[in-house]
Write a structure and sequence with these properties.
mainly beta, Jelly Rolls, 8-stranded antiparallel beta sheet, 39% strand, globular
Length: 251
């Protein structure tokens, strides 16, 4: 794979190839004739099967003083009626959630041609005036919210997150679509201890296509899926790569 041309200082980035742990259902993720990863939702009414695939390694993390970029080329499902569809590309930290972190790189619901990026961290014990929990406002997390992305269900697009630890006093996480930044979480939005616990370690990488759940239900203000939801919508992943850059390294 070629280095993404938009990655700054790309000659200093190293590439790591994630290996999948495997699918969790016989009807789950499969390789198509083009060696793309397909996750297809099949069902009707309230009875559905789909799939989730996770890397065998949970060592993908930003090095101290450096950066990590995780990027994938994905075509979102494009069902005729997508109520309840919930494709996701995300990273999960080890240990207790949300303290050890979750980075949602791509989430869309109900086939709305939308995209959101979210960072989950902190605790579930500290109440906030708005009813959320902890410094990261769970269970919502620190999120871009759903952003309109016309045409994103009909073609491949590149979804990327960069965890940046180059400045210990100003660490940040940045989200990109097709190389254009759309969201950022800065260290000063949470306390340093919270960010350290959530980011200073490795993550595993997950692709999944869920049907129904709290996110699609919350957006539609209904119970999804419906009897009209179309079976056979497919999330297709062309590739996923992880890059890291350590101070003083060269390509």
């Amino acid at each position: 794979m070629l280095w993404p041309s938009w990655l700054p200082g790309r000659s200093q980035w190293r590439c790591h190839r994630p290996q999948p742990r495997g699918r969790d259902r016989p009807t789950g993720p499969v390789l198509d004739g083009y060696r793309n990863l397909d996750i297809t939702a099949l069902g009707h009414g309230q009875s559905w099967t789909s799939g989730r695939i996770q890397t065998t390694s949970s060592d993908f993390g930003a090095p101290a003083g450096g950066e990590m970029a995780v990027t994938a080329s994905i075509r979102q499902p494009d069902p005729a009626v997508g109520l309840g569809y919930w494709p996701a590309f995300w990273m999960l930290g080890p240990g207790n959630w949300p303290g050890t972190g979750e980075i949602d790189i791509l989430e869309d619901v109900n086939a709305l041609n939308m995209q959101s990026g979210t960072f989950h961290c902190g605790n579930l014990t500290q109440g906030n005036p708005d009813g959320t929990l902890g410094p990261c406002h769970e269970f919502t997390g620190i999120s871009s919210g759903l952003l309109t992305c016309p045409g994103f269900q009909t073609g491949f697009h590149t979804y990327t997150v960069i965890a940046d630890r180059t400045d210990p006093a100003a660490e940040e996480i940045r989200w990109y679509i097709d190389g254009r930044q759309f969201f950022q979480v800065n260290e000063d939005q949470v306390d340093q201890a919270t960010l350290t616990t959530a980011v200073h370690h490795g993550y595993s990488i997950i692709f999944d296509l869920a049907i129904g759940g709290g996110f699609p239900d919350g957006v539609c203000q209904c119970t999804a899926p419906s009897d009209q939801t179309t079976s056979g919508g497919t999330m297709t992943v062309r590739y996923v790569s992880v890059y890291d850059r350590v101070p003083g390294t060269t390509g």
